Amino acid sequence: MKQFTSVHDVEDIKALVAAALALKESPYAHQGLGKNKTIGLVFLNPSLRTRLSTQKAALNLGMNVMVMNMDKEGWALETQDGVVMNGGTVEHIREAAAVMGQYCDILGLRSFPKLQSKEEDYSEDFFNKFISYCGVPVVSLESATRHPLQSLTDLVTISETWKGVAKPKVVLAWAPHIKALPQAVPNSFSEWMCKAQQEDLLDFTIVQPKGYELNEDFTPGAAISYNLDEALEGADYIYVKNWSSYKEYGKVLTYPEGWMLTNEKLKGTNDAKVMHCLPVRRDLELSSEVLDGPNSLVIHEAGNRLWAAQAVLKQLLENL
Ligand code: AN0
Ligand code: CP
C-alpha cells in the first residue's frame, strides 16, 4: 500500500481487517518497524479520536509523531494557482506541503469539505494537491468525501463482534442533526460495506429520507430504502449517522420526524448492535437510552480506531 485515501488503495480488505485484529492481540510486536521514522498529522479541522488513535498507533510502531493544527497554528493557505497572493492567504499549498514532506516519512491529513460547491469538494482538489506536493505517502484522516480509517475500523468492529452463522445485515441509517455535516463518513462507510458485500461478508442497506441519497459512486450494490422501520427489520448492525443532502448540495432539507433511533425502533431488529463514528449529539441524532444501553458498540468501536490506524501505518511503513 502506497497511500491510504480510500478502499481503492487496499489490495485485500479481509487481510487488513485480520492485521488490525492481530495488532489488537499484540500491540507492540512491531516496535522496531517505525524506528527513526516520523509521521506528521496535519489537521485543518477538529478531532478527538482520529488525532489520539493515530498518534498512539504510530507510537506503538516506534515512530516519532508530530501534530500540526494548521487551522489554528499554521499560516493561512492558498490553494489556487495563478493568483496574486495579496489577500488573506500567506503561504501556498505548493510550499507548505512540500516542506512538511521534508520533515516526515508519512503525512496524515484532515480536511473537511466546505459544502459550498459539490464540484470542488468531490474533486478532492485540496487533498490531491497536498498529496502531489508533499512527496511522501499520505493517510486520510478524513477528506472532503471519505473517512477510510473510520470505515476500516467499522469493518473490523463488525468482523470482530459477529458471531452468527449467516451473513450479518448491516444498515446505514440517516439520523437528524441541526447542522450541515459532510457526506464523508457515510460515503466511506458505504464504499467499504459495498466492497465487503461483494466479498460475501455481509448484506448492506442504506435508509434515508427522500433527498438525502448519497452519490451513487459510493453505493454500488447497496439496497436503498426510504422507510426506517422496514429497513431495520432483522438488522444485525445499525450504523447511525447524519449527513447533509448531496442532491441539494450541503443543505439540511427538512427535519423529518421519527428518524432518531430509540429502544422502540430496535424491537424489529435482530437485537441489532448500534454503531456511530462519534462525536454524536445525544437525543438529537441518537437517543441516550440506546447510547447507554446494552446494544451500543460506540465506545468499543472508537477503541478499535487504534488497531485500524496501526494496521494501515504498518503496511505503509513496510512499503517505504
Ligand atoms: C464530522 C463529520 O460528520 O464528518 C466528523 C465525524 C468523524 N462530524 C461533525 O462535524 C460533527
Ligand atoms: N470519528 C472521528 O473521526 O472522530 P474525531 O472527529 O474526533 O477524530
Q: What does this protein structure show overall?
A:
- By secondary structure, the chain is of the alpha/beta class.
- It has 2 domains: 7-146 and 305-318, Rossmann fold (3-Layer(aba) Sandwich), CATH 3.40.50; 148-302, Aspartate/ornithine carbamoyltransferase (Rossmann fold, 3-Layer(aba) Sandwich), CATH 3.40.50.1370.
- Helix content is 37%, strand content 14%.
- It contains 12 helices and 11 strands.
- The chain has helices at residues 13-25, 49-60, 70-73, 93-103, 118-122, 125-134, 148-161, 184-198, 228-232, 263-266, 288-291, 298-318, and strands spanning 38-43, 64-69, 77-78, 91-92, 106-110, 138-140, 169-174, 203-207, 223-225, 237-241, 273-275.
- Strands 9-8-7-10-11 form a 5-stranded parallel beta sheet. A 4-stranded parallel beta sheet has the order 2-1-5-6, with helices on both faces.
- Helix 1 crosses helix 7, helix 4 crosses helix 6 and helix 7 packs across helix 8 (184-198).
- The longest helix is centred in the C-terminal third of the chain and has 21 residues, at 298-318.
- The termini are close together.
- The mean pLDDT is 97.
- Bound molecules: N-acetyl-L-norvaline and phosphoric acid mono(formamide)ester.
- Phosphoric acid mono(formamide)ester binds at residues 47-51, 150, 277-279.
